[in-house]
Amino acid sequence: MHWPDTLVPIEESLKAFDRLVTSGKVRYLGTSNDTAYGTTKALMTSEMKGYARFESIQNNFSLLNRRFLDELSILCEKEQVSLLPYSPLGGGVLSGKYNQPNNTEGRFATYMNSKDLRQRSMAERFANDRALASVQKYLKIANDAGLHPVTMATAWSKQFSFVASTIIGATTPEQLDATLAAMDLTLSDEVIKACERVHQEILYPMG
Questions:
Q1: Under-70 pLDDT residues of the chain
Q2: Disulfide: which of 8, 147, 153, 170 matches 94 by Cβ 3.0-4.6 Å?
Q3: Which CATH number belongs to the domain containing residue 76 in this structure?
Q4: How many C-alpha atoms does 191 have within 13 Å on its Cβ side?
Q5: What's the confidence (pLDDT) of residue 60?
Q6: What is the radius of gyration, based on Cα positions, of the chain?
Q7: Angle at which helices 10-22 and 36-49 pack, to 10 degrees?
Q8: What is the pLDDT of residue 151?
């Protein structure tokens, strides 16, 4: 379920999903962009009605957006629901390209001056001053650790017990090298603590 539906009761959605599972068309169910309340409500409904449950949740989660850790991480741990983080690079911002002077690469460089309100809002959320200030600090941490910033950010997003995998993206095949380097990488405690200090200094840069 890509986005919670506030008009259709969750019972109806889960009943429809359950039919897909029982008919053999779907193996596992997942939700996306959901809240702790919405996910709990869905799990309770599945249990009471005997419907197939959500086994995964796909939410925005990165060094710049740690909101998942506030409540949903506990829910996932306790109820055995796996997070599949999307945008682990904060829309590409954690690559550091928006910290370069006169940068014109990347969608947010274009969105900043767009006439489309939604595009400008996205740019202001992902590539705002606080986010870029955070990224500058993360770039130094990565450099000191001998890591590509993309590798570090991707590794961070998957280094939690409630994360099954992380969703990556690339504009060019060459960009995958730094991302895939995080596949078997476990960040050191020193790097994790350094990243945590950045978060404490600049809380929730994406809001």
A1: none
A2: 153
A3: 3.20.20.100
A4: 23
A5: 97
A6: 19
A7: 60
A8: 98
Work out how many domains the chain is built from and give that number: 1
Enter the tokens of residue 178: 């730094």
Q: Please indicate, yes or no, if residue 27 is contained in any of the structural domains.
A: no
Q: Does residue 194 fall inside a structural domain?
A: yes
DSSP assignments along 8-39, one per residue: S-HHHHHHHHHHHHHTTS-S-EEEES--HHHH
Is residue 156 assigned to a domain? yes
Domain that residue 99 falls in: 59-201
Q: Which residue in the block uniquely carries the two structure tokens 């986005």?
A: 3
Is residue 154 one of the residues assigned to a domain? yes
Q: Which one-letter amino acid corresponds to residue 24?
A: G
pLDDT at 2: 92
First to last CA, the chain: 24
In this structure, the number of other CB atoms found within 10 A of the CB of residue 159 comes to 15
CB 121 within 8 A of CB 178: no
On whether the CB atoms of residues 89 and 149 are closer than 8 A, the answer is: no
Q: How many angstroms separate the CA atoms of 64 and 56, rounded? A: 22
Q: Are 59 and 33 in contact (CB under 8 A)?
A: yes
Q: Can you tell me the distance from the alpha carbon of 72 to that of 36, in angstroms, rounded to the nearest whole number? A: 5
* pLDDT reported for residue 109: 84
pLDDT at res. 113: 81
